[in-house]
């Protein structure tokens, strides 16, 4: 795309030239009209002056002598010596009733027949030249007085007027274009300074822009750039924290796996090899769970490409998730019950987020439930919130642990856990505009409740 200066200047020059063209057209039209009016008035005036001379009281001989004097004087006109070039383009003639020419200029055109229509007219002579004429009938003396001028006289005058006005306008337009170029450059200088500042910054620099002075038009741009830089810093910070946490938490499981692998190589009996192999498989399972939890945490990080929330029936989502988890709970000798009252519960959420949160809550409940224990999942609605609760029959939570339950990688008494389950559920609750609450049950066990705003 072309530069802003070039686009703006092109628009300004285009509008200026268009306006100049329109004004020139009006100027030519008005010049033609005004010149025609003035020259027509002169034609009529000359005809009447000539009529006044022809009406002078004289005898026939005196009239003949007057006509002869007229013709002699007009024949002596020499425009190139002591006259004007336009004299040869101006003419008049006088006819008597018989059509005989009494008086005429040397430049008078020849006609097949004398004009008979009084007033103004456009006529062509025998040489094909166009004349603007005025014919005056003098009924008192039975004369027809014809005064005319060639059309090129008027055209030449209009051309002179147009040239004398058009060229200054064109020259002035070029000067204005140059001044506009400089003015636009001066006006865009803050933008150029901002671009130069951005180019001069280090590629890894994420500090906010602080340009001063800054025009009000560029303040939203600077604010938007600073917001974008802050978002990039936040994303990079989350990635660094994720990589650091993953590296820290993977170090111990991998070291343990290496120890178990060495024990397996050094085992002297079949029993020792089996025990080492079982420890190795258990360590691989724990490492796999840790990797899955880390990937889940990465997917839950806020991103601009996340799909928008939709109105869903959370009871249907919970029911489908429980169907998938039931075989695993039965293999752990645990019983699962679900209570929703048989009614739909609509919330603004995503099915995947609800499924991940429920799986983590049930997994936590299963890890702390006694053998043949019961895990109860229930749905209810109160105070404008939909409450998804998971209850177990485990030992509950000690008071000194409440402040650390949602910390990353904090696992309370579960050697097989990654310490990310409640952190994931808390992240989902925050993204959905809800909350997660943990309460020790009176009869023993823990109730974890995910509360989300209900939809109408």
| Helix-strand sequence | HHHEEEEEHHHHEHEEHEEHEE
What general outline do the C-alpha atoms trace?
rod-shaped
Q: Taking Cα atoms only, what radius of gyration do you get, to the nearest Å?
A: 53 Å
Binned, the helix content reads 40-55%
Structure report:
The protein is an alpha+beta fold. The protein has 3 domains: 4-160, Beta-Lactamase; 219-300, Signal transduction histidine kinase, dimerisation/phosphotransfer (DHp) domain (Helix Hairpins, Orthogonal Bundle); 310-453, Heat Shock Protein 90 (2-Layer Sandwich), CATH 3.30.565.10. Helix content is 54%, strand content 17%. It has helices at residues 4-54, 60-75, 79-82, 151-187, 189-200, 219-266, 270-300, 314-331, 351-368, 421-431; strands spanning 90-95, 101-104, 119-124, 130-138, 143-150, 310-313, 335-339, 346-349, 374-382, 385-391, 435-440, 446-453. Strands 2-1-5-4-3 form a 5-stranded antiparallel β-sheet. The protein is rod-shaped. The relative contact order is 0.06.
